[in-house]
Structure formats: C-alpha cells, structure tokens
Amino acid sequence: xxxxxxxxxxxxxxxxxxxxxxxxxxxxxxxxxxxxxxxxxxxxxxxxxxxxxxxxxxxxxxxxxxxxxxxxxxxxxxxxxxxxxxxxxxxxxxxxxxxxxxxxxxxxxxxxxxxxxxxxxxxxxxxxxx
Length: 130
Hints:
Number of strands: 8
Strand content: over 45%
Largest sheet: 6 strands, antiparallel, barrel
CATH class: Mainly Beta
Structural class: alpha+beta
Number of domains: 1
Radius of gyration: 15 Å
Number of helices: 3
Order of helices and strands: EHEEEHEEHEE
Low-confidence stretches: none
Distance between the termini: 13 Å
C-alpha cells in the first residue's frame, strides 16, 4: 500500500477510474477573468474520458471548451473517518452537442458536452477506508 507524505493511501489509475464511474456530480475548477472559480458540474465517465455537460450561456459552457481544467470528485464521511478523492486535470475540448448527455442528465439546460482526458488523474483514500 503506497502512501503520500500526508499518510493518505495513493489510489491506482484503475481505482481512480472505478470511483469516477460511480458518481455524477463533481467540482470543476476553471478560470474566469484570470481568477480561479470552482463550480458544481454534472459529468459521466465514457471509457476513460470524463464528459461534462453545460449550458452554452453559463460560465462552464463559455469557459470549459479549449481550456485546462481540474475536476474533483470525492466521497467523504462527515467525520472524515473514511472516504476518498479523485482529481482529473486536463485539456477540455468540445465534443458534441448534448443529445446523448441529455438522455442521461435529463437536463434541458445541457447544451454542450466537453471532454476531459484522464491522462493526469490522481486519487487518495483515507487510511482504513473500505
């Protein structure tokens, strides 16, 4: 079991992808007017890519395509006795209109879908977590 300098268990790439596959809401960090902004986003894992849906008029729809972003998903117990976090950093590119994503999201506001590759993916688990 590999641990980082803070004592957290370092997750393998495969374990990170497994955890991404079970959730649908993430925090995504972008820049707006040269300042960092963290927003909630609906996502789905397709193969090893993360697909994020956004409204064309919203901040995510305007800023996500053609930018470097970080996406974070976590599942933590309120008392922090167990849990994990997975982060993906990569280039976000527009892949399609949102028809397929909308079938999953059932969200009329989703108008664009952005792909983020998982080439840079890291994950940590609280020691002792199942």
